[in-house]
C-alpha cells in the first residue's frame, strides 16, 4: 500500500492526503482533540471532519494541526 501513494499516478494526492489525515487524526485523538482544536484554531467538529479516514483536508489545515501537535513535515528529494 505504501508504494501506491509514493507514485505519481492520478490517485497520488487524494490517497496521500487521506493517509496523512487519518494518521494525524489518530495522533490528535490520543493527545486530546479538544486541546489540538484550541491550539490549531480549528473548531473541534471541523477537526474531526478534516481528520477522518478518506478526508481530503487543505494543506493549511494539515499545517495547523501539525503545528499544534509539534510535528514537522519535511519534503526531501529522493535519490534513485
Keywords, please?
single chain; 80 residues; mainly alpha; 5 helices; 64% helix
Low-confidence stretches: 1-7
Specify the overall morphology: globular
SSE topology string: HHHHH
Strand content: under 5%
Please tell me the overall pLDDT. 83
Q: How many domains, as an integer?
A: 1
Largest sheet: none
Strands, count:
0
Helix content: 55-70%
- Alpha-carbon distance between the termini? 20 Å
Which value, in Å, is the CA radius of gyration?
Answer: 13 Å
- Number of H- or I-type helical stretches: 5
Secondary structural class: mainly alpha
Oligomeric state of this protein: single chain
Any overview of this molecule?
This protein has 80 residues and is mainly alpha-helical. It has one domain (7-69). 64% of the residues lie in helices and 0% in strands. It has five helices and no strands. The protein has helices at 2-6, 12-31, 33-40, 44-50, 59-69. α2 (12-31) packs parallel to α5 and α3 (33-40) packs across α5 (59-69). The longest helix has 20 residues, at 12-31. It is globular, with a radius of gyration of 13 Å. The two termini are 20 Å apart. The model is unreliable at 1-7 (pLDDT under 50).
